[in-house]
Amino acid sequence: MRIWITGAGGRLGGRLGDILSGSHDTVGMDSNDLDVTDFAAVKAFAHDTRPDVIIHAAAWTDVDGCANDPDRAVAVNGFGAQHVALAAAAVGAALVYISTNEVFDGESRQPYREYDPTHPVNAYGYSKWVGERAVMTLHPRHYIVRTSWVFAHGGKNFVQTMLNAAQAGKPLRVVTNEIACPTYNDDLADAVAALIQTERFGVYHFTNAGACSRWQFARYILNRAGFADTPITPILSHQWQRPSTPPLYTPLANHAGKRIGIALRPWQEAVDAFLEREGLLA
Q1: What is the DSSP string of 226-258?
Q2: Which residue of 99, 157, 215, 226 is 20 to 30 Å from 79, comparing CA positions?
């Protein structure tokens, strides 16, 4: 297959390029190569390359940045997805859209299933919801993949932030009432790579199995990396002031993926694998 990956300069897009290029003809583009808010450019590139599958991993993922500039968030994450969906439909390519747990409001008391009603409560979640609606409306041959709390090698993410703070001896304060599913970037990429072989279109929740609070996540990371004696002060979300307000309870249930044999390992095993590859597993 010929596969076009948007956001190829990002952690997920880059990892997908690495694992798919060995068996497929891959074309990777990042924001320096192509602006997804430019519909004419997106359509022309799709027409020229004629991909069989487009994996739309490009996004503005700065949650607080989206809160400060919600119009830009919708332009990039919402209308950018619309442009890619229209281009995919025009050339007959299947489309993968990477979305987020933040399309939900966090008011549930059980993990969200793939077709539970969405109700975003912040600018980032709203912008990704706009993208989801565009993809669903404009192109039937789509896979929408929601994920959460992604951590990757070489990137700025929660795992690296906790480790850097512990190594520097900085005090740590982490919220206890924000709960979701940590997701190892490499496991997510493997799941998406498997999904595009199936032609089982629809909505999928791909996260590592199990849920935890931010505090529990941080505690496990430090314990496994040799910082078991480093204290972490538990706080509530309102004590951590930030521009965006994340939904508090958004674990994602993987029902659809399991039905076709795609399931990710427990998040604790994924953290161990990450730390081992980084040479940090105590």
Answers
A1: T-TTS--EEE-GGGS--SS---SB--B--SHHH
A2: 157
What φ, ψ does residue 84 adopt, rounded to 5°? -65, -40
What tokens were used for 269?
A: 């095993």
> Which of these, 80, 87, 86, lies nearest to 45 by C-alpha position?
87
pLDDT tens for 169-196 read 999 999 999 999 999 999 999 999 999 9
- Whether 93 and 51 have beta carbons less than 8 Å apart is answered as yes
Side-chain half-sphere exposure of 67, counting CA atoms within 13 A: 13
Hey, where are the domains in the chain?
A: 2-157+181-210+250-265
| Residue 95: how many other CB atoms lie within 10 Å | 26
CATH number of 2-157+181-210+250-265: 3.40.50.720
- Beta strand pairing status for 25-29 and 173-175? unpaired
- Answering whether pTM is above 0.90, one says yes
- Those residues whose C-beta lies under 8 Å from the C-beta of residue 7, and which sit 6 or more positions away, are 13, 29, 30, 31, 56, 57, 58, 59
Residue showing tokens 């072989």: 197
d(C-alpha 233, C-alpha 241), whole Å: 16
Q: If you average pLDDT over residues 41-66, what whole number do you get?
A: 97
Q: What is the pLDDT of residue 229?
A: 96
* CA–CA dist 251, 264 (Å, integer): 14
Residue type, 243: P
Q: E strands along the chain, which residues?
A: 2-6, 25-29, 53-56, 94-100, 142-147, 150-151, 173-175, 179-180, 183-184, 202-205, 212-213, 233-235
List 97, 112, 115, 124, catalytic entry? 124
Is 124 one of the annotated active-site residues of the chain? yes
Residue-level pLDDT at 155 = 74
Residue 72, token pair as written in the block:
């830009």
